[in-house]
Write a structure and sequence with these properties.
Number of domains: 2
Radius of gyration: 19 Å
Strand order of the largest sheet: 1-3-2
Structural class: mainly alpha
Strand content: 5-15%
Order of helices and strands: HHEEEHHHHH
Number of helices: 7
């Protein structure tokens, strides 16, 4: 195969790399030449050869990417949104595991312009509410962010 493995880089003109780039970009990863791979990177093989490596972001970086994407989606800083929308965002973040990241609640609270206690209150309301009473925001829940 000509391309990433042969040139020592991961060019976009390589069909394999070009096909993977939107996915890697969406998850915040980085495409690398196989020789640049480090432990923890994902090596991808194509037609029997090491074609490229993907370096995935750390979880903490993922939370920042999610919060930035939410601001783009809503078109304004998250702190400027109304309470109901902030509650929807917290539900979406919880569903995506954002609060398993160290200091995730604090970082989300800072982005939302609320205290961490408010975020915990939103989460408690969510767990206390019956499923049918909790409106879903598809764009946050289905990974568009």
């Amino acid at each position: 195969m000509s391309g990433a493995a042969d040139k020592g880089t991961a060019p976009d003109d390589d069909p394999f790399t070009a096909a993977l780039r939107p996915l890697v970009d969406a998850v915040g990863g980085e495409i690398l030449a196989p020789a640049e791979a480090a432990p923890g990177d994902v090596m991808l093989h194509w037609e029997g050869h090491e074609a490229l490596a993907v370096r995935l972001p750390q979880l903490a970086e993922s939370l920042d990417r999610i919060l930035t994407a939410l601001e783009r989606q809503y078109g304004e800083p998250l702190a400027a949104l109304d309470r109901r929308t902030k509650q929807e965002i917290v539900r979406g973040l919880e569903a995506r595991g954002a609060f398993t990241v160290r200091h995730g609640v604090e970082r989300a609270a800072r982005a939302l312009g609320v205290s961490r206690f408010t975020v915990y209150n939103y989460l408690n309301r969510q767990s206390a509410a019956p499923e049918s009473a909790v409106p879903e925001r598809a764009a946050v829940e289905d990974g568009e962010v």
